[in-house]
Specification:
There is one protein chain. Helices cover about 45% and strands about 15% of the residues. The protein is built from twelve helices and twelve strands. The chain has helices at about 15-25, 50-60, 75-80, 80-100, 135-155, 180-190, 210-220, 240-250, 265-270, 280-285, 295-305, 320-345, and strands at about 5-10, 30-35, 45, 65, 105-110, 160-165, 165, 195, 205-210, 235, 240, 255-260. Helix 1 crosses helix 12 (about 320-345). It is α/β, with parallel strands linked by helices and about 350 residues long. The relative contact order is 0.14. It has a single domain (about 5-340), classed as NAD(P)-binding Rossmann-like Domain (Rossmann fold). Bound molecules: 2-amino-3-ketobutyric acid.
Length: about 350
């Protein structure tokens, strides 16, 4: 029987940290190789080096690649050349190697950043005017076309999702426009105060990381013939503005205060849709998000407060007696996650 051997590129990033753990649970720890430019990965890998990538795929008998290394929207505006090179050049190397080595499947994340001011603001559909106005957005749109090209021309089974802003408690995002929605939780717990770089009413599509990980695994498990979109699927979780998130956090931390100092990232956010229509993902592979603003906020505060070793918070509407057992349960699952993460950093590649 053929063994699935997975290479995760960008394994130490925001998505990679959690996706590597989930893939290890599914495929076994030695069958998932965590690659990154950081020394905490299993192997050091520069995705820009085609030969190095090709050698790793051959030596480790890789059958699938999850390619997550990218420069996000805000950083991309400050480093246009580097963002273009990494985001498009890195993907092209992965697609070339997938073709040359006849890999089974490739996953690559696109983003809501492909949409621009000409796209519908609300319930933005899959196919519409798509005119990105950031380097990151342009690179993602080009990447979508490259994925489609490699599928059509060479039969590379590459699959992709247009992720909204992602919110997680394990790894921090870096250099994105939606990063505020993670920073705010850390600052709310540590200082009960947050200065937001978006305006209070700048509504964006967002998703809690457990939904994003599940969506990725579900998409990759879907039979090939059901995948009707080979550029990238629209994917929706929830939509909220900074003031909505602040109001939700305040239910748990009544002293929490927020102020607004919009900077260049506000214009980027303004150019993106406020909400996304994801009916193709629902129809083709049964996508349905599990978290909304309320359940995501409660889970984030609960898990982060435990991780930070802070006094147990009173859950909104819950009594202290109700919350304590919940916290113990969570602590248990967090210890599990922490152990798996330790595995990610400790494990070395073993060729069987
Ligand atoms: C960013 O803010 O750049 C990313 C994204 C929406 O893709 N989180």
């Amino acid at each position: 029987m053929k063994i699935d051997r997975i290479l995760v590129i960008g394994a130490c990033g925001q998505i990679g940290t959690e996706l590597t753990v989930a893939l290890r649970e599914k495929y076994g720890r030695y069958n998932v190789i965590a690659a990154d430019k950081k020394i905490t990965a299993d192997i050091l890998l520069d995705v820009m080096d085609h030969e190095e990538l090709s050698n790793v795929v051959r030596e480790c008998s890789v059958t699938q690649i999850y390619h997550l290394a990218a420069m996000l929207s805000a950083n991309g505006e400050q480093n246009a050349d580097a963002a273009w090179k990494l985001n498009v050049g890195g993907l092209l190397n992965v697609l070339k190697v997938a073709k040359e080595r006849k890999l089974d499947k490739v996953f690559w994340p696109s983003s809501i950043a492909v949409f621009g001011l000409g796209s519908p603001k609300y319930n933005c559909p899959q196919n519409t005017r798509i005119e990105p106005n950031t380097v990151y957005g342009i690179s993602k749109r080009a990447g979508e076309y490259w994925c489609n090209y490699y599928y059509e021309k060479y039969g590379v089974d590459v699959r992709s999702l247009r992720f909204p802003g992602l919110i997680s408690y394990t790894a921090l995002p870096g250099g994105g426009t939606t990063d505020y929605a993670v920073d705010i939780f850390h600052q709310a717990l540590e200082k009960q105060y947050y200065t937001c770089f978006l305006s209070e009413d700048n509504c964006l599509p967002m998703m809690y990381m457990p939904d994003a990980i599940r969506a990725t695994l579900e998409l990759m498990d879907t039979p090939k013939e059901k995948i009707s979109i080979r550029t990238s699927y629209n994917l929706a979780g929830m939509s909220f503005a900074p003031c909505d998130l602040a109001a939700e956090i305040e239910k748990y931390i009544p002293d929490f205060k927020i102020s607004y100092e919009p900077d260049y990232r506000n214009a980027i956010a303004n150019s993106w849709p406020a909400s996304i229509k994801d009916d193709n993902a629902r129809k083709d592979w049964g996508w349905e998000p599990a978290y909304n603003l309320e359940s995501m906020t409660s889970d984030m505060l609960e898990k982060l407060s435990i991780m930070k070793g802070m006094p147990v918070l009173l859950s909104s509407g819950n009594s202290q007696e109700e919350f304590q057992p919940l916290a113990h349960e969570t602590l248990h699952s967090l210890l599990g996650t922490a152990n798996s993460l330790r595995e990610v950093t400790k494990t070395h590649v073993i060729n069987e």
